Amino acid sequence: MMPYSIYIVDDENTIREGVGMALEADYSVKAFATAESAMDAIKKNFPDLVLLDIGLPGMNGIEALGLIKDLSPDILVIMITAYEDIKNVISTMKLGAYDYVVKPLHMDALEVTIGNALESIRLRKEVQALHEKYLKENLPCFVGESDAIQDVMGFIGTVAKSPDTPILIIGETGTGKELLASAIHYRSPNFKGPFMTVNCAAIPKDLIESELFGYEKGAFSGAAPSGKNGLIEEAENGTLFLDEVGDLAMEAQAKLLRFLEMGEFYRVGGTKKLRIQTRVVSATNKDLHTMIEKGRFRKDLYYRLGVIEVQVPSLNERRDDILPIARHFLYEFSHKFDKTFTGISARAESALREYLWTGNVRELKNTIERGVLTGKGPELKLKDLGTGKPYGAEALKQVKSEAAFPPLPDTGIDFSSIQESLEKHYIKEALKLTGGNESKAAALLNINHHTFRYRRKKLLIQ
User: Fold this and answer.
1) How many other β-carbons are positioned within 10 Å of the β-carbon of residue 188?
2) Chosen domain end from 269, 295, 312
3) Do 111 and 202 fall into the same domain?
4) Which domain, by its residues, includes 13?
5) Are residues 106 and 197 both part of a single domain?
6) pLDDT tens digits, one per residue of 290-306
7) What are the respective helix, strand and coil percentages of the chain, to the nearest 5?
8) For residue 53, is it within any domain?
9) With the C-alpha atoms ordered 286, 288, 291, 295, is the resulting torsion angle positive or negative?
10) Which pLDDT tens digit goes with each residue over 257-294?
11) C-alpha 75, offset from chain centre
12) Please, which residues bridge with residue 275 across strands?
C-alpha cells in the first residue's frame, strides 16, 4: 500500500486531536494550529493531502491554499468551513481545492471524501510509476507488461542498434506502429537526426513522388520556383517513417526500391544523382503477400523494406494491458479536461476487459477520452463508456448473448486454456475449409494474414 501523509490545519484543538486520532491508524498525520506553522512544514516536506480550515487566525485558509498550490499543484487540499459560506467555498474551488467539508465534522463523511482524494493521488502515482518505467529517458515505448509487448520491445531494442537496416512493422490499425517506429529511431545511432513521418495513404498518388524525393524548379505546373527538398533529404542522418506503405503507387515503389538498394535517387525533373544516408522504417496493416499476388505491390520492394520484420500484437492479444492503458488515458484526460476522476468502476473495468477492441489502443483511447469528457466522476462508470443514448453511439459490443454460454461454476474455470482452445479450433477449421491457404483462412476469421500467421505459430498449429 502506498504511504500517504495528511496535514490537519485547524485552530480548534478538539478537531486537530479528534480527526488526528481517527486517521493516524491508516495514515501519517501531522496537525497544526496556524497556517504559518503548516506552511513552514510543507516547504520542508510535501504532504499528499491537507485538511485546511478557512477561518484561521492570522493567515486564513484561502491565502494558505494559494501558497500551497504555488508550491505544488499536486498537493490535494480539502477545505474545512464552520458554515456553508458559498462565496468562500467558490473562491477555494477556483484556487484549486479538491473539495470542502462543513463543521461540525462527521467522520464517516470526512473519511469518504479523504478516500476519494487519496484514490486520485494513488492513480496519479501509479501512472507516474508507469511513465518512469516505460518512458525512461523520454524514449517512446508502450504502456503494458504483457509478455507479447515485452517481447516486441526487447526485439526493438536489439534491431534498432543498426543505423540503416530497413525495418517493416506489421500490425492492425491503432496498435501503435508509429510509436514503435519512433522508439526504433530514439534507440538507434540516428537518434540525434530528424524523425520524419510520411502517411503514404494521405498523399495523392500524383504527389507522393515529389513529396518523397523532392523536385527541381519548373518540374511541373505549380512547382515552387526554387524547387523543393523531398522528405528523404529532410530525414538525412535520421529516420524516415513510411506509414501505410502498402498504399504507395507502383511508380513510387520503383524509385523507393532504387534508393533502398543504392542509397541514391533523383528529384522529380532532375538529372543530378543524390546520395544520402537515412534509415527507412515502414508500416502497414495490409496483407502485402496478397497484394504481391495481385500485382499491387513489388515483391523485391517487400524484401528490401522487411530486412527486419516486426509483428505488433493487437490489443486483444495482450488483454492484460487493457486496464493499465485505460488508467493511463484516464489520468491523461482527467488532467486535460480538469476533471477529478479517481478510478474506473468494477463494472466498467469488466466491460473494458471483455470488449473486442477492433480499433486497438486508438479505440480504447477514444473511449476513455469520451468517458472522461462526458462523465461526472469520481469513477469512470459503465454508462460513461458510451453504451447509453445520452453518450452517443454504442462503444461496447455485445459479442454474444449471455444465454449462449453455460453458467460460471463456483469453482471457477481455466479461462486462458478455454480461450486458447477456441483459437486453435477456429484456426484449424479455417485452414481445413480453405485447403491450407493462410490468406483465405485469415479472411474467414476477419483478421489480417500476418496476425493469422503469428497466432498459428504461437499456438504451434501445423
Assistant:
1) 23
2) 312
3) no
4) 5-133
5) no
6) 899 999 999 999 999 99
7) 50, 15, 40
8) yes
9) positive
10) 989 988 888 888 888 888 888 999 999 999 899 899 99
11) 25
12) 264
Of 35, 328, 352, 363, which Cα lies nearest the Cα of 176? 363
Is a pLDDT exceeding 50 seen at residue 391? no
Q: Cα(436)–Cα(206) distance, rounded to whole angstroms?
A: 39
Q: Identify the band that residue 394 occupies on the pLDDT scale cut at 50, 70 and 90.
A: very low
Q: What is the per-residue pLDDT across 148-191, written as a single tens digit (0 to 9) for each?
A: 888 888 888 888 888 889 999 999 989 989 989 998 998 888 88
Nearest to 19 by CA among 3, 35, 6: 6
Is there a single domain that holds both residue 228 and residue 347?
A: no
Q: Which of 377, 402, 427 is at the close of a domain?
A: 402
Inside any domain, residue 407: no
Tally the residues of the chain. 462
**Residue 221: helix, strand or coil by DSSP?**
coil
Say how many domains are in the chain: 4
**How high is the mean pLDDT of the chain?**
84
pLDDT for 428: 87
pLDDT for 134 equals: 45
Mean pLDDT of 39-48: 93
Mean pLDDT of 113-127: 84
- 448 in Cβ contact with 172 (< 8 Å): yes
Is residue 212 in some structural domain?
A: yes
| Residue 450 grid cell | 500476418
Structure pTM?
A: 0.57
Tell the burial category of 451 from Cβ atoms under 10 Å away from its Cβ (0-12, 13-18, 19+).
Answer: buried
Cell 477456441, residue located: 422
pLDDT of residue 283: 95
Say how many Å lie between the first and final Cα of the chain, rounded.
Answer: 47
- Number of other residues whose CB lies within 10 A of the CB of residue 251: 12
Domain shared by 79 and 214, yes or no: no
Same domain, 10 and 85: yes
Q: Which residues neighbour 226 within 8 Å (Cβ) at sequence distance 6 or greater? A: 217
Amino acid 361 reads V
Q: What is the CATH number of the domain that holds 369?
A: 1.10.8.60
Residue 181 counted as domain residue: yes
CB 230 within 8 A of CB 267: yes
| C-alpha to C-alpha distance for 57 and 285, rounded to whole angstroms | 66
Query: C-alpha grid cell for residue 362?
Result: 486508438
CB 428 within 8 A of CB 418: no
Residues 145-166 as b or e (16 or more Cβ within 10 Å = b)? ebebbeebeeebeebbebbeeb
